[in-house]
Amino acid sequence: MRRPLHEHLQPRGLVSRRAFLQLGGASGLALLGGCAVGRTSSEPSAPGRATAPATCTSAVLGIVAPAPGAVLCSGPLTVLGTSTSGAGAVNWRLTDAGGADLAAGVADQVGTATAPAFVVPLELQPGEYSLTLDAGAGSPVDACRSVTQSLLVVDAAAGLHWRSGASGRSSADGTFAAWRGDPVTVSSTWSDDAGGQLALWPLTGDYADWTGDLDIAIGAIETGENWAAAARGEYDDRWTACLRRLTRLWGDRAGVPYIRFAHEFNGFWYPWTVHPEEVGDFVTAWRRFRALQLQHAPAARLVFAPNSESAGDRLFDWRTAFPGAEYVDVLSTSYFNGRPVITSAPEFWRQALRSDPTGAPFGIQRHLEFAAGVGLPFALSEWGCDGSITDSPDFFRQVFAFCNVHGGPGPGQLAYEVLFNVADAGAPFTVEPTTSMPASASAYQALW
């Protein structure tokens, strides 16, 4: 179990000692697992926050994540940057606090011709580092084509700076926490048909004694219902009953209930699917629900959660369905490895930077950037890997790296993530108690 952060930071000199690193290939460093503490600032990360010197009129390179001043944890972290078109190869060099060279390589290109981007996957032990990125032709470094950022890495024992957990019965009964060796501070569950919306069965069943945070998907409308009727208030009574029951069943628990209303509305598999002509009614209905939530369940937080990828034969830009930041507390998504299969850091970040055919966010980096743009924290209410398709420990490492550089409670930061660990014979996503992806399960257990 990890020690509290304040206990870890007391010994002087902990982060100033030279770290031992082991070169792990041309684009990264391989070493121990660990956890993240996240950046100290609550501001969202944005391209160009670490840039070339002020004497340069046009910066060639910019670092998107981690943000300057970030405090990171030992283990996987990935530096994400952007470059101007035609910048060419980006070389990187890592030095310790004394300026001694530790490793160097060429960054992986993960962007497009019109939106160049690159990543440097690292795994670091505690220490102070400087990472220099250079798009110049050689030595000496061209100051107008380079950028340097400090990286402060603390011990993995310090603990996570974001809320972390898993769904499934083993999370509710404590088995999962014992297996991974660290507390589960957030879980997720579903009670998302009309009967479940009123009964909220998980709160009287598996999660009756749960005291952590809980992301609960309650659906929205049922088969035979429609968003136009919802916009007129025809389901207000049912929604009110749901919210009152949630408040009563939650009582004075220490955790926060996160209400995931109409989750994955941009798919085609739920009765509350939104079609292009229904967007206006959906927004009106969402705002009605928000008013009811603030009245009857004010301690809860309302989560706007499109699926990562819009699906179906009537695609629309899901951002047009966003009701406004004042009607939402957290922006979340569901994100899974399977199609296409992600087996490496470059593949992960190429996917993370994707937009869908309408221009809306597809990858989790783009979803997080949208959250930052509207001033909301970001979450992964469901994430995982389909073990019937692949066993990819690198996917798990890069999810951790994403959390490491983005973790925190502020706008544009990763507030919480929940591994989808629900047993289903048709979709083997679990890492515990049984798994069809042992390498991924081992990677998760070592990192989290």
TrEMBL record:
Superkingdom of origin: Bacteria
GO molecular function, one term: hydrolase activity, hydrolyzing O-glycosyl compounds
Keywords, alphabetical: Glycosidase, Hydrolase
Domain GH26: residue ranges: 142-448
Matches recorded under InterPro entries: GH, GH26_dom, TAT_signal
Active site: 264, 382
UniProt keyword annotation of Hydrolase present: yes
Family stated for the protein in its record: Belongs to the glycosyl hydrolase 26 family.
Name this protein carries in UniProt: GH26 domain-containing protein
Organism in which the protein naturally occurs: Goekera deserti
